[in-house]
Design brief:
By secondary structure, the protein is an alpha+beta fold. The chain is built from three helices and nine strands; from the N terminus they run H-H-H-E-E-E-E-E-E-E-E-E. The protein is globular, with a radius of gyration of 15 Å.
Length: about 160
């Protein structure tokens, strides 16, 4: 039954109506907010210091410290900054890198990729397409069917479980 619910959620593409656990997202319609125009002062007020460092300053959490690295419940992972649905538990795998990893996003239009050279060589950075939050990076060493590994910081995400 829970897989049928997940399939229905994935097929309806109305992810913006999923419940979220972040206090700053409660009671608002995330589709009606211009997230990219929010000033740093807003983000510093509504995010934890680690969330701010990772998602707004392109930082990274230490490996094996994030709450979703070994997480295995069924559900949807949404952006911790704006609530946009990003990844499904159905596409999560244990990459043994210390960060939650997925072989594909729920919808490619919900993710923005760009090349960064912050560590001296090119990597592909992954951002939330709605709010610009830094999520992590994508690498070409993942499992089939895509061969991709979206290596994502736990603090960039909130988990919405599938009701059983």
């Amino acid at each position: 039954m829970k897989y049928l619910i997940l399939l229905l959620l994935l097929s309806c593409q109305d992810f913006e109506n999923l419940p979220v656990t972040s206090a700053h997202l409660k009671g608002i319609n995330p589709n009606k907010v211009d997230w990219k125009s929010k000033p740093d002062s807003y983000w510093k007020k509504v995010l934890t210091p680690l969330q701010y460092y990772v998602t707004r300053e392109d930082g990274t959490e230490k490996p094996f410290t994030g709450q979703y690295d070994k997480h295995d419940q069924k559900g949807i992972y949404v952006c911790s900054n704006c609530g946009l649905a990003l990844f499904s538990s159905e596409h999560k795998f244990d990459s043994k890198t210390g960060w939650p990893s997925y072989y594909k996003p729920i919808d490619e239009s919900n993710i923005k990729e760009k090349v960064d050279f912050k560590i001296g060589f090119p990597r592909t950075e992954v951002e939330c397409s709605r709010c610009g939050a830094h999520l992590g990076h994508v690498f070409k060493d993942g499992p089939k069917p895509t061969g991709l590994r979206f290596c994502i910081n736990s603090v960039s995400l909130f988990f919405v479980p599938i009701s059983q």
